[in-house]
Amino acid sequence: MAESPDNGRLAGRLAAVGALAFVLVVPPVLAQFDEMDRIFGVPVLWAYLYLVWAAVIALVAVIGARTR
Amino acid sequence: MLRTGVIVAASVCYLGLLFVVAFYAERRADAGRSLINNATVYALSLAVYETAWALYGNVGGAATSGIDFLGFYMGPVIMLALGWLVLRRIIRISRRHRVTSLADFVSARYGKSAVLGGLVTVIAVVGVVPYISLQLKAVSNAFEIIRRYPEITTPSRLGHVPPLQDTGLYAALLLAAFTILFGTRHLDTAERHEGLVAAVAFESVVKIGALLAVGIFVTFWMFRGFDDLFAEAAHAGLGQLFTLQGHTSYGTWFWFIVLSMLSVLLLPRQWQVTFVENVDEEHLKRAMWLFPLYLLANTVFVLPLAAAGILRLGGATDADTFVLTLPMVEGQQALALFVFIGGLSAGTAMIAVETIALATMVSNSLVMPLLLRGRSRLANRDDVTGLVQGIRRTAIVLILLLGYAYFRLAGEGHALTSFGVVSFAAVAQFAPAVLGGLFWKGGTRQGVLVGLVGGFAIWSYTLLLPSFAESGLLPASLLREGPLGIELLRPQQLFGLAGLDPTSHAMFWSALVNIGGYVVVSLAGRPNTAEQAQAVQFVDILAEPAGERRWRARATVGALQTMLERFLGREGAERAVRSYPGASPESPEAAAPPDLIHHAEAQLSGTVGAASARLAVDAVVGQEPVRTDEVMEMIGEASQRVELVRQRLEFLYDATSGIGTTLDVTHTAQELAQVAVPGFADYVTVDLAEAVLRGDEPGTDGGTGGGSPRMRRTAVSGIHEEALPFFRVGDLITFAPASPPARSIETGKAVLVPRLRDSPGWQAVDQERASRILDYGVHSYITTPLTARGVLLGVVHFWRSEKPEPFEQDDLSLAVELAAHAAVSLDNARRYTREHGMAVALQRSLLPRALPEQNAVEVAFRYLPAQEGVGGDWFDVIPLSGARVALVMGDVVGHGLHAAATMGRLRTAVHNFSSLDPPPHELLSHLDELVTVTDQDAVAAGDETTITGATCLYAVYDSVSRSCAVARAGHLAPAAVHPDGSVEFLDVPSGLPLGIGGLPFESVELLLPEGSSLVLFTDGLVERRDQDIDTGLGLLRETLARPGRSPEETCDAVLDALLPDIQSDDIALLVARTRVLGAGQVAQWDVESDPAAVRRVRAAVSALLAEWELESLQDTTELILSELITNAMRYGVGPIKVRLLRDRTLTCEVYDNSLTSPHLRYATTTDEGGRGLFLVAQLSARWGTRYTKDGKVIWAEQTMPEVPGS
């Protein structure tokens, strides 16, 4: 529906971030990191999930702040 | 340190602190500086998602199945990212439609269905109770473990304790009290709880602090950082905890993500804090990243703690307690207490918000609808607040006790940790209804009903039932062999679907049934009107007001104009286009500039509403195809409006036709009071200015000269009659300056007081009366001035008591229209009253009040003005010389002031003419001439009303000769009632009405026996619209035919018999009973023309006077007679006759046959004669001349001396 273009754009961008996050945390992408190895001393999957998580937080924060 | 007392004291202190926070927040809120009007507080309040179970159980879960607990956190992160798309809509809908719970939302979305609300409530309660029991278990277990310090106890070893010694029960009761105190202290229409939200945000800080403290202590104190810890764990063979494969299927992982996504939206407590408690949707922007960040911080130490717990405590300790027991084995009592407080914090926050949300749903969507259906009287109850509070509190206690019971029954099994998933799966059943309802307009109530019931049934069968079976409440064979051994129905392999873990299996089936049922049933049916209307409201919630839209499409000016005409009419459309401030378009074919299209839409939306205006303009401009459902809604809305307008018009039509049926001010006021009851108001009172009641012109302020308006209560009407609290009819009312009526009089505008109870100003004017009115049940009020031509006539007050809905703005305009109409009627009635009063006064002043004294006839008369106005009837009795009397009856055409004035002129003229004493036909001729001349003048002056057509009857009765001369000009012939009672309508030539001229009038002379009655009347007496005049005359004849009645009696009898019910014409009636001057009162002498005769006559007269005992008049009479006789002899002709009449006066008459008239001369000193008449005039009271058939009479009257005893 017609709404202010800023809000519509913001919703769209954030929805895209959400979709990206979803794709990254389910197989098959997830399966690529599902192994027992450790990286920088921490488990790979653990590190990967928190990385994705942090990235999503950062993206949402930045996108949200820019369209004010 | 960790003794039971200390722990309890710390817990109580902490709960006390929460209260302080809550009270502070509410104080701030009352002061207008809300603490929770802050994006960070909002984000922290969302963290109610983190429960005590998460605090303890995540580590436990991670210790057994590794990293898969993170799936529960991926969902919220994704859902929050979708926040601007999904959450913001729900926030807006909740705000705009006052949705206060999940059940409310679903019910409102699908046509405000009470059934759906109840269903959602039931599912939510059933689904969430296990989750609540989880919190109770977590808190009570933690308490049991920490109070046994330094011993490390495993919950499973705590054994079975009787309920009264069970910490869980006390925890449940304590939390119930806490929740009741927090959540139901007062009712808020928005169901917002400032204090609670502040406390929840505070708790979120405490619980993350506890978890971070433990995490940091363990990771960096007990171990040397993450890599040390993870390395040791890997070394100890815990590597599989770092992966999903091997213990958790990707399917489960996927469902964890989906379930948690939906849970963060649909759990009752999340719904409460996210949507209901939201202050500003902008806060969502920060929460969208701050809340995931909080969750991240909250979970980052979970896996390390699990690994550390296994490494340091081994398998002997329950992994669910690692967070608590790790500090305990290290001897960190303070840290352990902090963790316990953190867990308590998480538990109380979760339980408080969850139960409040559930209690709101239970009371608003389940119990109240049932109560309102069952006991309709409840709807009229004044104070439902107490009832609602009671229901909520009961619900809170019951929900917590239910949670405790579940914990007692099922909680001993190992499956408790999976209860969280069970709850998540339960609330996930709402997803199709809520999300579908947000984005798809096609969903129907039936679809939701089928989907929800199906999904919930599957959930119960495939998740709840197995959880009971695993707890030992149901035989385990149910899972293995299916109910009654039917393998196809095994709860965890329904219809043979094997190979899935229980969660995936349950979610697959329930999602299939739920979504499938929702979509298929919705598509199969059609949304009804209410559902459509709500669908548009919900789905298009983000639609911005029309004005902000930019039109890029092209449309011609002509097309736009045609569209406007369809809605506004030709004139309206032209006005709308003319009011466009920009350059006016050159031709209809020109393309309309975007601003003009905007202008047209704005003009239209004022008439048909914004949504319809948008659709209409869309249709012309063709930018967007008009969707069928929107048109449906538009039509529905429009037809509702039309129906409403039609009803109002009908009422107004009925009401206005009931007002002004008469021209009576008071009656009109009563009609106004009556028509509005009960259709519009329950009571109506009307006050009118005093002057209006009198018919006078009131001043603009009600005729008080600027002081406080004073009115007289003129009419009261209501559904009840007895013991009304209002002023009574006839009371004089002074409106206090600030009262609503005074304000409405001052401004000339109607005043609406929708809720009298909330109007301190109104109550302050007269506290006692106000409270009586309120006690009577009156709750809503409109007062409207009655003004016509800018003049205030009065005020009308409308009151509502039994109609539950207060007056609205629309009612105000209806009241104003009604009052305007009534005011015109009142003004008409007032003017009529005034004119009528003036005309009556004029006529009465013109008609004889008392008839002159005369003895010729005995007279009685009646005059009755017509109801609708004064007429021109008149009559007169004029004494004439010679014991005669003239009777006059006339009728001027028409009614009103003009007729009355004309009548006055004619009457005066007749009086003047009669003094000349002409015969009746001659007098009528004079009158006719006068009327003709007057009318000519009137016509020349452009006056439309003339006198022509007036009728007159003139009769002269001589009481000496008993003769009566009658002439008439178009008037009805008089009736003569003879002494024997026979009635005769005198046969007098009719003559033409006055002013027409032509035929001369004719007198008829007849003899009347003594005691005959002459009856003169006007047509009003005998003429009726519905009957022939002869009928009236016949009736009159019958009535008159009674002998021996006095004139008064005759008048009464005639009016009794002939007075019509509705008197359309005025009536004049004159009855004269004839008398005869007896022989003893008359003396006559013939005088020969000889001076000596004079002496003889003088002697005879002198003797007669002595006989009549009038010696005092002897000298003057002799003098008068000798003068008159001498004159007659000197100037007159033929036989001279002298007559003396002793009546009221002593009349001397001298007859001769000459027609020359003597006239008074003022003789000079040298004149020899010419002093006779002068002398006569000096000596007599009156004198004059009249003409007879064969000569003239000179007469002189002398007043009779006062006779003692006469």
From TrEMBL, chain A:
Keywords: Membrane, Transmembrane, Transmembrane helix. The chain crosses the membrane at residues 47-65. This is DUF3311 domain-containing protein. It comes from Streptomyces oryzae.
